[in-house]
Amino acid sequence: MESVFYIIIITRVPIEITIKNMPTNLADILNIVLMISVAAVSGLVGSFALMKRMALASDAISHIALPGLGLAILLNINPLWGGLVALVLGAIIIWAIESQTKISTETVIGVVFSASLAIGSLITPSHELEEVLFGDIATPSVMEGLVGLIVTLVIGFTLLMIREKIVLSMVSQDLARTIGLKTSRINFIFLLLFSINVLLGLKFLGVLLMGALVIVPAAVAKNLATGLNADLWLSSFMAVLSVVVGFLVASATQLTLGPVIISVATIFFIISILIKLVLRR
Question: pLDDT (tens digit, 9 = 90+) per residue, 72-86?
């Protein structure tokens, strides 16, 4: 389906811009709303991930879904269900090892990531591997879209409710324990929310690029924002803006959606660096 727009400039010469694959039914519209809501939550998650120094871990976590996606494809079921199981199990394993051994979260994630990448590459059919890595795994039904939208709202609400606890557990675990805050539980909740958010974004960004949507907008906010709340909201806004602009560009140019979104986010990051340098003068 094509939507044709006409722009009349000063010379009164009509310029035709054709954007293909624009949403035409409820499922498509809901898919775009879900994409935007996932981006908003990814911005929140990314801000906390940078605070916890988990920038590289965000990319690794998305790869943990790969064995589940591959196995689900082999069994001819919805790949996202396989990804969900793999990510939840991965989050539990990472949390358990970190709690029992005191090895840093990023180290444990790196080990689980390596194993997941190897196993997933072996079992994922080669003809499906590109879609798994770069997105467009499947178009969700209306019910799947509604469930996904509800889950993103729950993730966002939960993160905002526990944001002070997350920050306190990062600043001083001893102080957090003295006031009765169970830092291990907070870490697990954050890791679980992180993993589920990654899962929701796998459909349109894929395993390779979902981690970038979590981190790059958060890096933009870190360059420009002052204060926790400003950082959270700016990160969320930049993630949404990257997805919206990326979607419009991909629709107009027929390029793959995932790489376009991350390219747009990267451009925003470069601009934020230039703005920061100018403001320092």
Answer: 888 888 777 888 888
